[in-house]
Amino acid sequence: MELTVKTVQSWLADFALEIEKNKDYLSELDTPIGDGDHGNNLARGLKAYEEAVVQQQPNTISDTFKILAMALISKVGGASGPLYGSAFMNITKASQEITSITSQVALGKLLEQGVLGIQLRGKAVAGDKTMVDVWLPVIEALKTEKLTVEKINAAKEATKDLVAKKGRASYLGKRAIGHIDPGAASSALLFITLLPYLQ
Ligand code: ADP
Ligand code: MG
Questions:
Q1: Measured in angstroms, how far is the CA atom of residue 83 from the centroid of ligand 1?
Q2: Residue-wise pLDDT tens digits, 116-153
């Protein structure tokens, strides 16, 4: 595999499209255990990214992720904006010297810097019923070149049985059980749209 600046931008365009298509679904997931805005929050951020990328025409992978990070930090109202923003800002820093990502292992290492950004900001660990519960198993699977749609969906679905320890859903205690975490669902879309580019 080789992810160039072009393929990274195609991936992120596919992600933006999936978020737009699934924005009601994501906000519905956020309704029983949050405030019902997750899909709308992210759709607003990704629309801002798409406008900025057209305007700024970045020609490196690092600059592309920086535009995404800035758009999410400045345009997403909810907690997820700064969290995704710090992930993509860390990936911006970690990809400064590279012109392409040439293996799943290398991509896994970049994403690992990303999840460290989320965890540094939000303090969530595995099992806290957040987006981190999708990022961590995805990164592990990339390291052994075994990322599949089934694994991504299983990680997302597994958040259903968890009690939330971070974010608005944590106010609900056991009542959060039975509901998929919306941030885990949006992260699943991020990684499902990546799969075709791993060939
Ligand atoms: P808000 O909760 O401010 O309305 P969103 O609805 O956009 O923000 O995003 C909610 C999602 O953010 C959750 O489903 C969860 O995945 C993620 N999240 C919230 N707090 C944290 C945290 N501390 N660490 C990691 N992810 C978090
Ligand atoms: Mg919300």
A1: 8
A2: 999 999 999 999 999 999 999 999 999 999 999 999 99
- CA proximity to 130, closest of 78, 71, 95, 80: 80
State the SS3 of the chain: CCECHHHHHHHHHHHHHHHHHCHHHHHHHHHHHCCCCHHHHHHHHHHHHHHHHHHHCCCCHHHHHHHHHHHHHHHCCCCHHHHHHHHHHHHHHHCCCCCCECCHHHHHHHHHHHHHHHHHHHCCCCCCCCCHHHHHHHHHHHHCCCCCHHHHHHHHHHHHHCCCCCCHHHHHHHHHCCCCCHHHHHHHHHHHCCHHHHC
- pLDDT bin (cut points 50, 70, 90) of residue 77 is confident
- Ligand 1 atom showing the smallest separation from residue 33 Cα: 14
pLDDT band at 190 (very low <50, low <70, confident <90, very high): very high
Task: List, chain by chain if needed, residues with CB within 6 Å of any ligand 1 atom.
Answer: 30, 34-35, 37-38, 41, 78-80, 83, 118, 122-124, 130-132, 166-168, 181-184
Q: Is the pTM of this model over 0.85?
A: yes
Q: Which of 79, 20, 27 is nearest to 46 (CA)?
A: 20
Query: Residue 14: its pLDDT value, please?
Result: 98
For residue 181, give the ligand 1 atom closest to its CA.
14
